[in-house]
């Protein structure tokens, strides 16, 4: 958990996500900004620097894929093209009327909203709803952990996250106590002891395993 900007960003539960979006974030811009982070597993810089033309068609329709340009990715490794799921499409559709001409999330000057401003907005939102340990990276960690828990292969998740290798990706994924308990419980099938507490021997033990 992240405390005073130290430690790992908290992985959010569904209830915490609902609290933040419904009671912590108070306008469409902020909900859309962090919705992009959640539903595309984008880094906060990648979300802040999105271009409006990469999100909407000239007629104002949400494009089927969200483009994160290479220049705005960490390490400037490669452009990512991510499918826009329905939850994100709805957020972006509602946001269209207030999107910037150049940047999707304009700042006070001619540029885009800054990462620091986004972080302050989120800290205020989390304070209002009483959730600690959250940073702008929480949405990315939450998204990637959710995909891993759903059984999505790591190589596929890597395509979405943009990590250079699987080792980097695995550092983002959180393992819950329930998962560890479930993994340990699966070892019960190896037990050499019968239901009445009598230890099996030789062929009997092999027969029980198979």
TrEMBL record:
The keyword DNA-binding applies. The keyword Ligase does not apply. InterPro entries: DNA_brk_join_enz, Integrase-like_cat_sf, Integrase_catalytic, Tyrosine_recombinase_XerCD. GO terms for molecular function: DNA binding. Residues 7-186 form the Tyr recombinase domain. GO terms for biological process: DNA integration; DNA recombination. It comes from the Bacteria. Keywords: DNA recombination, DNA-binding. SUPFAM superfamilies: DNA breaking-rejoining enzymes. Belongs to the 'phage' integrase family. This is Site-specific integrase.
